[in-house]
Design goal:
By secondary structure, the protein is mainly α. About 70% of the residues lie in helices and about 5% in strands. Strand 1 and strand 2 form a beta hairpin.
Amino acid sequence: MSITLIIIITTCIISISGFTKEKIIDDLIFDPPAITNRNQWYRFFTCGFIHADYMHLGFNMYSFYMFGDAIEYFFGKIFGDSGKGFFLILYITSLFFCLIPTYLANKNNNRYRSLGASGAVSAIVFAYIFLAPTTKLQLLFLPIPFPAFLFGIIYLIISAYLSKKGTSNINHSAHFWGAIYGIVFLIALCNVFSHFKPINNFVEQLQNYFAR
């Protein structure tokens, strides 16, 4: 069984349990003052395994499924037997790093709470985009194929704008920083544990794309 499928099953079980048991949500949700005042740092990670509703859960897990298996495959080719372990580390650590800016901005805000795996999913999606920038993507709500790098640019711009605007209940900051972390993690990991050069690969693919 793939790491992707294990994460999806685990997330679905915990999230669905939380839909009917409010205590599960209260115990696991990202709550900055609880971290600041009670040192409940585990909330950085546990909040990624709960969701607001079935639509929220379904969208995140569908997106993760679409890109997770591909990243597992890429990591296997780049890192060999260590690939699955590195993939799991990427997912788990992205849950933490994508929320650092959110925590710093709300560490004493008793009205702020956040949940969902969107930041970690963004990390996986952008690791894929960096490895395969010219792959054609076709989204459910936009059935027109377009290159992955173009989606990445639009996603980052919209996430940064909506995060700065701050008028919705969606944590766009986690989306943005999760995406950035996915790329940084990939580059750093390759520099230490393989001879693969992800930046050179990214540039070369774009050059070939525009040279057509």
